[in-house]
Amino acid sequence: MRNTLWDAVGDTPLLRIASLSQRTGCELFGKAEFMNPGGSIKDRAAKGMIRDAEAKGLLKPGATIVEGTAGNTGIGLAVLGIERGYRVVVTMPDNQAREKYEYLESMGVDVRKVPVVPFANPAHFFHQARALAETNGWWWANQFENVANGDFHSETTGKEIWEQTEGRVDVLVASTGTGGTLGGVSRYLKEKNPALEVVLLDPHGSGLFCHFTEGKIEGSGSSITEGIGIMRLTENFKRARIDAALRVSDQEMIEMLYHLARTDALVVGTSAALNVRGAYEVAKKYQGSGKRIVTFLCDHGSRYASKVFNAEFLASKGLVERPLP
Ligand code: PMP
Questions:
Q1: Residues forming CATH 3.40.50.1100 domain(s) in the chain
Q2: I need a labelling partner for 123 at 20 to 30 A (CA). Which of 1, 12, 231, 236 fits?
Q3: Ligand 1 atom index nearest CA of 150
Q4: 178-190 pLDDT, tens per residue?
């Protein structure tokens, strides 16, 4: 029985993306993570980290949870934390889609917006969350370095994909934020099938593509995607097993976002659209092979409607809606 939000995390469908499978002669699948109770893949990280902290005695009844987040981890911690009697405080960069602040505020979460600054600046949301924890004696989830995040993905996301594909998965394609998803899932699936190919996707402005190809963390430009891209190596990411890396532009991401919405009725967020675009590029390379390519539909497009379905916003970023090539 799944009669709590806690128990409703995971066991998401693995959806076959019909239009792209047909175009490429491969089998493209998206793990429907927007169907988690808080609406994103980060509900898994939240559950894994809360479970671990409770088991270690770090989180006691009535405690306050604090986290630095692009929004989804905060939503996951709130959805599960409130149900378990915790108070939740989040620090968030101030340039995220307003829908995420609104969701958090609707649950009574204390949202502290901070300016977008480089990681070295103490005003960065990561350092601000740690400082609040230290000052107030709150529990800091620390999704970037806390490997209970990636461990939970091995245990659930990886295992589910293996079972849902009946052990027939050829390529795993994913962008990364904390590295929890990619670290956990790539580790689990490679153990099951060492021949699995893992492709890291990276938006502009993130340093991981360059890290993989040239060994240095560098990234130019920027991206409107939220929750992915990073300029440092986290403990969760260090566990990832990666064979290839691909950069995906915002324009390519937007083309896929509209294609999925209009052709497959899959209205997904920016990281999911970027993931599927990457999976599609890989599928074109393997045209006609029937290879099974799996990626993540991290959250729902409604969470970004004020941006991605807003013509003025797109124009301001030089992005155009045009058919998928
Ligand atoms: N997509 C979205 C929408 C997210 O919020 C996040 C988490 N920041 C990710 C992808 C990346 O997941 P992970 O942190 O597991 O790398």
A1: 14-35+157-316, 42-140
A2: 236
A3: 15
A4: 999 999 999 999 9
